Amino acid sequence: MKTKMTIKEAALFLGVYPGTLYRYVQDGSVPHYRVGRRIFFSQETLSDWINRQEGM
Q1: Are 35 and 25 in contact (CB under 8 A)?
Q2: Which of 16, 26, 46, 55 has the fewest beta carbons closer than 10 A?
Q3: pLDDT tens-digit readout, 1-55
Q4: Read out DSSP for 10-30?
Q5: How far is CA 43 from the centre of its chain?
Q6: Is residue 39 within a helix (H) or strand (E), and if so which, with residue range?
Q7: What is the DSSP letter of 31?
Q8: Alpha-carbon span 48 to 46, nearest angstrom
Q9: Sign of the torsion angle spanned by Cα atoms 5, 10, 13, 17
Q10: pTM (two decimals)
């Protein structure tokens, strides 16, 4: 199972547009990490983040 996702893959996983996900990254509301200037997401971390959002 692939755990590292690009912004496009993560947007598809979350069901949002890439531009929306970029805004989430800018305001720090979605967990991500950077390698240089590139932005990546962990599928497990995003799944946990979704579960926490549902509990709010």
Answers
A1: no
A2: 55
A3: 568 999 999 999 999 999 999 999 999 999 999 999 999 999 999 999 999 988 8
A4: HHHHHTS-HHHHHHHHHHT-S
A5: 8
A6: strand 38-42
A7: -
A8: 5
A9: negative
A10: 0.86
DSSP 2: -
Contacts of 1 (CB under 8 A, 6+ apart): 43
Residue in the block written with tokens 């890439």:
18
Rounded to whole angstroms, the Cα distance separating 47 from 53 reads 10
Give 37's DSSP letter.
Answer: T
Residues 6+ apart with CB under 8 A from 2: 43
The encoded tokens of residue 14 equal 């979350």
Enumerate the β-bridge partners of residue 42: 4
A 10 A CB-CB count for 51 gives: 9
